[in-house]
Design a protein that fits this description.
Elements (H helix, E strand, L loop, with lengths): L7 H11 L32 E9 L2 E8 L4 E8 L8 E7 L14 H5 L2 H4 L6 E5 L22 H16 L2 E10 L1 H12 L6 E5 L8 H12 L6 H4 L5 H5 L13 E6 L6 H4 L6 H27 L5 E4 L7 H18 L3
Helix pairs in contact: 1-10
Length: 345
């Protein structure tokens, strides 16, 4: 089932950013049908040497978990929001961050817990919610080589192999997992579910980009990595490198068949949080508007791709809204029925 509300003016803004000559609803090369799509990535030997170094209970419902990760070569913090009934086995939702990934708090916590009411929202949900802390500009992927500025990034191995068995064992996980993300984390979430379809039952992507087929879209990824001083060539190579194809959710969209999929995006136009009483104003809208319009462009491409494959998804086009956390807080609520279904709740 697709729920689709198009906002033509917002699409026009996006085209003005990327150039009207590059829009295409044609299938990606070699992917015009499910038979042409590459096989999903899988890793047959999960890491077994990762361990929990310590757990600090921030409250009775929120744990800071410090994981000794061989893949990352360091201790990595994740925070886990716990349900009231902690003796009962339950599914796990992994929620990925945007580009700053906790930088605002000097990596004491996720930006999700700083900028939204995610803690309160999940207080009455019977699920573990795992929030990685850190990973600025990393795309939560395994990089080809360490970056001189961003260091070692082996997030895919950490999130898909090392972390899930530790979370399930320590926090009564039942083996059912879904994943969600915002902006950079939305693209990463879609990448991870298409590469690991056996691990995740569903996904929510909020204001993300899910297509690496065009050089201008690769350049947008490069700009996101560069925001924190990194070089995306150290991540997936030059633009012609096949690693960009391997991490292209649009190319690998066949893996989403049968999954619960939710995608949302605004238009880039100011909305109630900018123009309403006590709103942040047009200056903030001028900063976040173009970014959201770019996400709209990407989402339209991905929506077209899913439709061409007849893959069910809920795709929500908000008639307003910029690239800001106040909208993503709302979007998370809207995505919950899809994630709830994916988690078997």
């Amino acid at each position: 089932m697709h729920r689709r509300v198009l906002a033509a003016l917002g699409t026009g803004i996006a085209l003005s950013i990327f150039g009207s000559g590059v829009v295409s609803a044609q299938p990606l090369p070699g992917t015009g049908s499910s038979e042409g799509a590459p096989a999903p990535f899988s890793q047959s030997s999960p890491a077994t040497s990762a361990r929990i170094d310590k757990v600090e209970m921030l409250t009775d419902r929120r744990a800071a978990v410090f994981v000794d990760s061989p893949a990352m070569g360091k201790i990595v913090q994740v925070q886990v929001l716990l349900p009231a009934a902690q003796a009962v086995s339950r599914p796990t939702l992994y929620v990925l961050d945007g580009v700053s990934a906790g930088k605002e708090s000097n990596y004491a916590e996720s930006t999700w817990t700083q900028k939204t009411d995610i803690v309160d929202f999940f207080a009455n949900k019977n699920a573990n919610v795992v929030l990685p802390v850190g990973g600025s500009s990393s795309y939560y992927t395994d990089w080809n080589v360490p970056d001189p500025i961003l260091g070692v990034n082996m997030w895919e191995t950490f999130l898909t192999q090392e972390l899930p068995p530790l979370i399930d064992a320590r926090f009564s996980g039942n083996g059912t997992n879904a994943i969600a993300g915002v902006s950079m984390g939305a693209q990463a979430a879609m990448d991870l579910i298409t590469r690991h379809p056996d691990l995740y039952t569903g996904v929510a992507g909020l204001s993300g980009c899910y297509d690496n087929s065009q050089n201008n879209l690769k350049d947008a990824v490069r700009a996101t990595v560069a925001m924190n001083g990194g070089n995306a060539t150290n991540m997936w190579g030059e633009n012609a490198d096949l690693r960009w194809v391997e991490h292209d959710p649009s190319r690998n969209a066949e893996a989403l068949r049968g999954k619960d999929v939710y995608i949302s995006v605004g238009t880039g136009l100011p909305g109630p949080y900018e123009l309403g009483p006590g709103g942040s104003g047009l200056e903030v809208a001028a900063q976040g508007g173009p970014l959201e319009a770019a996400a709209l462009y990407c989402t339209t491409l991905f929506d077209t791709r899913l439709r061409s494959l007849d893959i069910d998804a809920t795709v929500v086009y908000r008639p307003y809204g910029i690239h800001q956390w106040v909208y993503w807080q709302d979007d998370l609520r809207e995505s919950w029925p899809t994630l709830e279904r994916a988690l078997g709740l």
